[in-house]
Design a protein that fits this description.
alpha/beta, Rossmann fold, 2 domains, single chain, 3-stranded parallel β-sheet, 11 strands, about 40% helix, globular, binds NADP nicotinamide-adenine-dinucleotide phosphate
Length: about 280
């Protein structure tokens, strides 16, 4: 393997340690950062994610409240829950765990979250702020990618970056963050023609597609930093969007799955919660 492995576990551990220190300082000033998570229904993956978030908060000293609503809860009940959390002075961050059951309108709920408590960074106000280069809550996964690049001294300034994927939670904010860091950014998607030609130009290649082993070695520029956001289950095993073994022989840096970007997402959620508490200052 030629590429340097980007160790998401180690970077996430460092970030969480820093957060624990800052949280203790804030508590000493009389502010206890508080994250409220709303979980609707019994989706097993969501239950695991929420438990992991809860545990990470507790470890860092951040107060965590999980509000569990029934699978068949009404839109009104969910919206009332979010409004109550918006009005609750003790709550600094609000997260509605996605996906919601089919009968609920996700977009309306996300729109209701107070943008200053929107630690997932999904509110249009925060996407707009990110786009305008203003301080914003940024979705945790792309924020985590930037932290990984920083930890390995991969400076996007002046580099060519290619992001495969244009979702609102990964691809688009990822591209905006790379652009803000002065990379020359191309966003690719399912209608992109000659994808490999474009990706071969990338000094930094981010794959956020959701297709196992989609990025092959011949799509990668020798020495490139390859960041794999994908999480796919193949025969019960977690794999990324990048054909890890083959691409490792070509890339300069590479993130594994698991143990790469996924580790960063919760760490950055804690960062956003801490920021929300610091900004409010009470
Ligand atoms: P998504 O909303 O399904 O978006 C996937 C994107 O990939 C879309 O923009 C789609 O293009 C593009 N795409 C699909 N097929 C393509 C192809 N053949 N060529 C080029 N582009 C193609 O997914 P997402 O929410 O962004 O998530 C992407 C992956 O990241 C998933 O595996 C997800 O599980 C993972 N993820 C990981 C974390 C983490 O913590 N590590 C967090 C979030 C997501 P169109 O727009 O044209 O359809």
């Amino acid at each position: 393997m030629a590429a340097t492995l980007i160790d998401g576990r180690a970077v996430a551990r460092d970030v969480k340690e820093r957060i624990a220190v800052k949280t203790a300082e804030m508590i000493a000033w009389g502010i206890t950062p508080h994250l409220a998570v709303v979980l609707v229904g019994e989706n097993p993956a969501s239950q695991v994610y929420v438990r992991n978030k809860e545990n990470a908060c507790i470890k860092a000293g951040i107060r965590s409240t999980v509000i569990r609503l029934d699978e068949d809860c009404t839109q009104q009940t969910l919206e009332d829950t979010v409004k109550k959390l918006n009005d609750d002075e003790s709550v600094h961050g609000i997260l509605v765990q996605l996906p919601l059951p089919k009968h609920l309108d996700e977009a309306s709920v996300l729109r209701l979250i107070d943008p200053d408590k929107d630690v997932d960074g999904f509110h249009a106000m925060n996407s707009g702020r990110l786009m305008n280069g203003q301080p914003a809550f940024v979705p945790c996964t792309p924020l985590g990618v930037m932290e990984l690049l920083k930890a390995y001294d991969i400076d996007p300034n002046g580099k060519r970056a290619v992001v495969i994927g244009r979702s609102n939670i990964v691809g688009k904010p990822m591209a905006m963050l790379l652009l803000a860091a002065n990379a020359t950014v191309t966003i690719c998607h399912s209608r992109t023609q000659n994808l490999a030609e474009i990706t071969r130009d990338a000094d930094i290649l981010v794959a956020a597609v959701g297709r196992a082993n989609f990025v092959k070695a011949d799509m990668v520029k020798p020495g490139a930093a390859v960041i794999d956001v994908g999480i796919n289950r193949v025969d019960g095993k977690l794999v990324g969007d990048v054909d890890f073994d083959a691409v490792s022989e070509v890339a300069g840096h590479i993130t594994p799955v698991p143990g790469g970007v996924g580790q960063m997402t919760i760490a950055m959620l804690l960062c956003n919660t801490l920021d929300a508490a610091a900004k409010r200052g009470r």
